[in-house]
Design goal:
This protein is an all-alpha fold. It has a domain at 60-134. It is 76% helix and 0% strand. The protein is built from 4 helices and no strands. The protein has helices spanning 6-17, 20-35, 40-89, 100-123. The radius of gyration is 27 Å and the shape is rod-shaped.
Length: 134
Amino acid sequence: MRLLDFAPALGAMRERLADPVFDVVAASLLLNDRLGGRNVSQVLDRLAHATRAQLRVQEELRAFQARNVLSARVVAAVPLVLLVVIRNLNPGYLALFDEWSGQLLLLGCLGSIALGYLGMLWITRLPDEPRVLR
């Protein structure tokens, strides 16, 4: 800030941090620097409360996503575990899959399971937090 003015220094810091929360802080500080005012502390205090609330929501979303990922893993593992259990209990019941056509069918089922698992992960992904100012 000694080499530059306040606004360019704050803009450079905003670009280095590349954080959406600091984008709002920088915009608030720049607005206060341009217009002046006595309510900067109140604005920053409200911003701090809003940021804490946003972080709580993000933590809840991450917990929800972790639960969905665990559910996707369980749903993907159940058919494979059942196949192994049935194969151990009664191998004759699954003799159909001993031939090449049965193996091809199992390969298709495995691909379907992998595709479903990846689809569940894609559906439950969290969106990226966009930058407020560019």
